[in-house]
């Protein structure tokens, strides 16, 4: 249950960091720094990441860091920036949160470089801060929206996000080679979309040169989402201009009809109730404007997709180790965890730490009187009240703060977060918590 990020912080006092382009509560950053059976429970995940004392967090999610979370961070000496690129760049504090965008950050191709940083820049900034810890560090960097573009079958978004991630990898590798003590592992969590360089209805694709294959996508100035934003912000009379200036072509009459019949095209001259697939080009028809644009862009290439979901092929694995100890061959995700844990001297330790820091309250509190008070509202969480011979503890989940005394006036800060699972009505607590009951 304990993560490698948590283990390295707890046992080795290493600095920790997360750099993403999705919201900071999304699946991958949450997997490194929080505990929830549901990836959708941002109300559980956000406070855990805040209270897990991650030294550097950079990515999306301005709206997901609440006032209480920011107050806690500032009380712990963090710099906190919301849509403040200049502030992030000028910051010299070792602990920093810098968030951009209400939820996720913009695609790299669509972002305003005066408003949002590139993944490459965030990676460099995080390394600059974390490497000051003499004990070393753990940093997870995710090119989050490669996956998003793949789900949407947007070839422009996929390729440009991958290039942005590749630049971030270069920053990490350059640092590791100069540092001589840093392990770098590059791996996706799964395949997605069945993307191919070649499509059945694109005759002669196997004879095309590199330039012929990629010349169109390299000239497009926006992702599918970028086009959606522009189309919904301008009158329908501007459609041809938008595509001509940003993709180098104008829509045919059939393509225009397919666009006008998209249900979520805000500026369509066709009333929403009258829009229908029958009146559009069936090959390009999509209930969503994003889907239409993605199909349109793909139709101008020889690229193909088999699905809008995850795929089961083996994925790439790349690594750099200063002594050349590499994970060769086929490795499962469990193998990679063990490889990384072994590299930092923690092989087997996460299992031990889980038994130390995440003990079911029903096991840990045997012999004590305790009550679980139900949540007062849907937005609240239940409260665990424990009575010892001399002291009483009040415990609210998803933070590292507990309160002592009958009036719960004395605050105690733990080294790990408290987790609660509603399915079994169980709190997961550190064993050391009982000392506060004496």
UniProtKB/TrEMBL annotation:
UniProt remark on cofactor binding: Binds 1 Mg(2+) ion.
Membrane spanning residue stretches: none
Signal peptide coordinates: none
Pfam hit, one: Alk_phosphatase
UniProt binding sites for Mg(2+): 26, 28, 142
Binding site for Zn(2+): 147, 151, 189-190, 310
Keywords, comma-separated and alphabetical: Magnesium, Metal-binding, Phosphoprotein, Zinc
GO MF annotation terms: alkaline phosphatase activity; metal ion binding
Cofactor(s), by name: Mg(2+); Zn(2+)
Family as reported in the entry's similarity comment: Belongs to the alkaline phosphatase family.
Protein name in the entry: Alkaline phosphatase
UniProt organism field: Tannerella sp. oral taxon BU063 isolate Cell 6/7/9
């Amino acid at each position: 249950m304990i993560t490698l990020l948590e283990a390295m912080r707890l046992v080795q006092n290493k600095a920790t960091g997360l750099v993403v382009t999705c919201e900071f509560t999304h699946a991958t950053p949450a997997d490194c720094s929080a505990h929830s059976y549901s990836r959708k429970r941002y109300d559980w995940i956000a406070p855990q990441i805040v209270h897990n004392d991650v030294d550097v967090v950079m990515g999306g999610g301005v709206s997901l860091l609440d006032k209480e979370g920011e107050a806690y961070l500032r009380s712990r000496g963090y710099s906190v920036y919301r849509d403040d690129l200049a502030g992030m760049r000028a910051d010299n504090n070792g602990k920093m949160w810098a968030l951009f965008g209400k939820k996720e950050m913009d695609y790299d191709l669509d972002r305003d470089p005066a408003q949002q940083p590139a993944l490459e820049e965030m990676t460099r900034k995080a390394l600059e801060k974390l490497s000051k810890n003499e004990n070393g560090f753990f940093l997870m960097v995710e090119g989050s929206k490669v996956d998003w573009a793949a789900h949407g079958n947007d070839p422009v978004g996929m390729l440009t996000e991958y290039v942005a991630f590749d630049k971030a990898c270069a920053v990490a590798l350059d640092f590791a080679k100069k540092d001589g003590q840093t392990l770098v592992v590059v791996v996706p969590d799964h395949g997605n979309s069945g993307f191919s360089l070649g499509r059945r209805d694109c005759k002669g694709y196997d004879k095309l040169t590199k330039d012929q294959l990629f010349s169109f996508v390299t000239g497009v100035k926006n992702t599918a989402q970028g086009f959606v934003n522009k189309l919904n912000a301008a009158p329908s009379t501007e459609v041809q201009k938008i595509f001509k200036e940003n993709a180098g072509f104008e829509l045919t009459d059939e393509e225009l009809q397919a666009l006008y019949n998209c249900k979520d095209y805000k500026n369509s001259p066709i009333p929403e109730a009258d829009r229908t697939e029958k009146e559009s080009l069936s090959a390009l028809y999509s209930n969503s404007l994003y889907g239409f644009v993605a199909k349109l862009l793909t139709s101008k290439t020889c690229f193909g997709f088999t699905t809008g979901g995850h795929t089961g092929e083996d994925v790439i694995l790349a690594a750099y180790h200063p002594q050349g100890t590499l994970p060769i061959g086929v490795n499962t995700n469990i193998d990679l965890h063990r490889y990384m844990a072994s590299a930092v001297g923690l092989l087997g330790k996460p299992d031990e730490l889980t038994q130390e820091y995440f003990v079911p309250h029903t096991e840990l509190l045997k012999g004590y009187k305790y009550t679980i008070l139900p949540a007062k509202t849907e937005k609240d969480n239940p409260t665990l009240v424990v009575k010892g011979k001399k002291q009483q503890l009040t415990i609210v989940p998803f933070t590292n703060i507990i309160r002592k005394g009958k009036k719960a006036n004395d605050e105690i800060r733990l080294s790990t977060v408290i987790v609660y699972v509603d399915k079994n009505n169980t709190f997961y607590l550190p064993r050391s918590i009982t000392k506060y009951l004496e």
